[in-house]
């Protein structure tokens, strides 16, 4: 069993580490958390990309990357995601464990220094981020937002969430709109950066085969320098139920149509009912032995995929499916029928046991990858007490049949999004 | 279990066991005792390109419809007494399968009930059951899968490229086939393909994770039905050296144009060795990684982005191509820049430091890939089918020198055998 160590660095900044030599790699990451808001979403979202392209010691993009290649292909990565109504801005460094370096270099010590320097000591020129890097990252961010349109399955899901949560911060795209990114000004970004490092909540994670102590010391010193006094509040709202279902249809020149149904579940973190809702989701549409897979796909042969995902931070559940246009209504009706079946208690002990086994399997598997561990512990940020994946598995195992039925009955349909294709190849 | 031999990597300290079971099946077990999860793959050397074949006993070759290997994969999950997913549901294993150009793999990942799950895997893949009715039913599901791929720009840009590079080789045909070809699939055809290619002598079992080799060996003794060795002739028409066309375009619902630039290579009946593969990987890293001068020029010109630009050595039985891919507002310009850089390297060579960096980066990535049981098991299967060995490959990367990389370049990346495939926005 892997132990996690936690300590505070300063006000609003936590440090978590798992040292485990079963991994051949290390991963260290810093996640800044900021409430999602239209005004700040885009200027925040460019920052991790801007920071991870240069440091004062390596102000040139190619030289920094040559240095990373020399460190056995180490990677500096930037990411933006949503955790409920909170925007998570991440910068991470990963590479091989010191024991695998061919010439005795310490990859971990160098990556910790590098990560600290890109975050706290960017190569500002006259107090501003260099113009070339800024323009470069702005263009790339626009292309990243544009490319979300290319994958229609992803696009349809994002569209449904946007419509469903239009009145909540969660309805804002993770990087804001294309237009907002276009309007970003280099002159504003130094202040945005100052705000983030001084006032955002931050989670630092050091995972894998390396001693976390020196990394802690590096970050401790860096944050002490800032003399932080307070950190921004990150509220997260969840709408318990929907009065009626809104339907939106968008026509597009694609062969296959997509159907996404968004439900409110009246159950979100840190509610004690979350494990029961997760189990309901697994039984309903989370696995290849679920109601949706076996009935909508296998029995009726209506689609290639039909599955559900529960978002415990927001308390929403989405059902996604790829179907022929003429079958959209049938698929929708069958999805609702299957929900009713669970609400009526029409599932047997085998189905319940299978859902438990499958969920517990995925929790235990998380601990075998650094990415899995990082995502899990990041999701625990706003819980009063951090749970290990194994503890979550135990809670899921203790859920009763009645609790699953109760969870199913809490669902109300909020939004139906259809992306209707012409059905013919272009 | 003395048929399982231990193979150790001095460089990484890792080891695995491998050997041929008396049934004819090649078995590999890669223990990771500290892991929670185990990942197992039962695979056959049979993919979408194997559409024309005969066994040594047969006089005439069989020609079967495109997409049949993939169709067979879907149908294997059904047996007379129910569906394999339902059986795995009882053990908690997460099961799946995939068909590629040259293999079909059935797999599960689990954290408990490993041997029970293994038993199900070995059983259902050895128990074909097809009827008119069950075969018919799958046409709806696979038809929707094909349509999903029709809209997928990443998928289309690749198959348009392969269609432009290859004149005869079946690698140019979509893995799932088309709605028309799958309509021709019958239970008899499925049985014929099954009995040819799902012979244990043409298959491998690779398991990585929290498992004991002796218990895997016992399970093999219990579950495997001995098979007569089979010799399969896969019949491919002679593929000419030259390409079909240098340029192919399609319009789809995308926001940014996507491209793939492929360089077709001459191939012999012998697949490239671990040494040659290592040389190519390092060569591609040195030419186009994000530390390279080429990458920097393209980025500064606003022609590529970090999120999408990449390369791949696309190699299998009878085909080999280097493919560069990404999103770009001007794919034609990107293609020209890449070709110019290749010719520059061919003429002037690499700076030693660029070469050393590229080699270290490729080495580091390969070490990192040994973290994950899924990537280990998948590598073991594809290496087994191509006659290569995992630890020898990692050693080859560490031992590659600049001269051999330059020598490798002589046979690769020739512009006269290249094609550019582009997907443009349709509005």
Automatic annotation (TrEMBL), chain A:
**GO molecular function annotation:** metal ion binding
Query: Could you name the domain of life of the organism this protein comes from?
Result: Bacteria
Q: Which residues form the signal peptide?
A: none
- Peptidase M16 C-terminal domain location is 184-358
InterPro entries linked: Metalloenz_LuxS/M16, MPP/UQCRC_Complex, Peptidase_M16_C
Q: What Gene3D superfamilies does this protein map onto?
A: Metalloenzyme, LuxS/M16 peptidase-like
Q: Which Pfam families match?
A: Peptidase_M16_C
Q: What is this protein called?
A: Peptidase M16 inactive domain protein
Q: Which organism is it from?
A: Caproicibacter fermentans
UniProtKB/TrEMBL annotation, chain B:
Indicate the segments forming the Peptidase M16 N-terminal domain, all copies: 66-178
Which residues does the UniProt record annotate as the domain Peptidase M16 C-terminal?
A: 184-361
Concerning InterPro entries, the annotation shows: Metalloenz_LuxS/M16, MPP/UQCRC_Complex, Pept_M16_N, Peptidase_M16_C
**MF terms in GO:** metal ion binding
Question: Gene3D superfamilies this protein is in?
Answer: Metalloenzyme, LuxS/M16 peptidase-like
Q: Which Pfam families match?
A: Peptidase_M16 (PF00675), Peptidase_M16_C (PF05193)
Superkingdom of the organism of origin:
Bacteria
Query: What name does UniProt use for this protein?
Result: Insulinase
